[in-house]
Every structure is written in C-alpha cells, then in structure tokens.
C-alpha cells in the first residue's frame, strides 16, 4: 500500500503542479482533463480543467491533484485546511530555498527558525493556497 496527499485546486491545478515540479525537481505525469473522460461519464465540469494529475519526486514521493469540477466552484470549493504537506530537507540552505519559493505570493504562518528538533523549520501557504511545513533534518 502507498499513501500520498491528493490536493483539490480551484482552477489552477496544472499551474500549481508544474510550479511544484520545477521547485522540487519532479515529473508531472498522468495529466487528464475533464474532456478526456468517456462520453458516458456524466460530468458537470469545465472540459479544460484537470481531472487528475500526478507529481512524482525522487521516484517515490507522490502528490496527486485535480481541479474542482468548475473553474470557480464558489461555495462548493473549500480551500485546503487542517493539514500541511510536510517536506524534510537535508540542509538549511535547501530548506531556505524551498520556503522562500513556496511563501512567495502566499503567506507565512511560522517563519523559518531553529527549534529543539530542527536546524530550520517553517510553515507557509503557497500562492495556490496549499499549506506547507518545511523541516531540515539536520539537528540544531
């Protein structure tokens, strides 16, 4: 069994996953749009939006995603909450690079800091509204 996060976006899924692929050095695959669905599958969705996509980083780390059924799902779309995608890095410099890129255009919940468990820890929401938690595995 493999578990991995699946994030639902509000019309900007492809843009977000391509940004994450560039940032983390991953590969976007299995991109399917709502227009790719079989004709007998009744969907009330913008055909140009992403029905499914997968981002693979370092061979085993996976993030899958899709767009909500409409480009502006309004009250039917709930922004990601009550979770964070956690990333453990192997250097303070890498943690700082990722945090800076993810926080740009988003918001910072906890600036990067030294903690009793980590040489560098921080929390932010990226410009796509996804919460991230970055932690450097190196002891302080």
| Average of the residue pLDDT scores | 91
CATH topology of the largest domain: Signal recognition particle alu RNA binding heterodimer, srp9/1
Radius of gyration: 16 Å
**Adjacency order of strands in the biggest sheet:** 1-4-3-2
Contiguous runs where pLDDT drops below 50 for at least 5 residues: none
Distance between the ends = 34 Å
What is the tally of helical segments? 2
Query: Into how many domains do the coordinates divide?
Result: 2
Please outline the major beta sheet: 4 strands, mixed
- Could you say what the CATH architecture of the largest domain is? 2-Layer Sandwich
**Portion in helices:** 10-25%
Instruction: Specify the structural class.
Output: alpha/beta
- The CATH C-level class name of the largest domain: Alpha Beta
Summarize the topology.
Layout: E1 6-9, H1 13-24, E2 27-33, E3 50-57, E4 61-67, E5 85-89, H2 92-103, E6 107-113, E7 121-125, E8 131-136
Quick recap:
This protein has helices at 13-24, 92-103; strands at residues 6-9, 27-33, 50-57, 61-67, 85-89, 107-113, 121-125, 131-136. It is of the alpha/beta class and 140 residues long.
What does this structure look like?
The protein has two helices and eight strands, in the order E-H-E-E-E-E-H-E-E-E. The protein is an alpha/beta fold and 140 residues long. The chain folds into two domains: 6-76, Signal recognition particle alu RNA binding heterodimer, srp9/1 (2-Layer Sandwich), CATH 3.30.720; 85-136, Signal recognition particle alu RNA binding heterodimer, srp9/1 (2-Layer Sandwich). A four-stranded mixed beta sheet has the order 1-4-3-2, covered by helices on one side. The radius of gyration is 16 Å and the shape is elongated. The N and C termini lie far apart (34 Å). The mean pLDDT is 91.
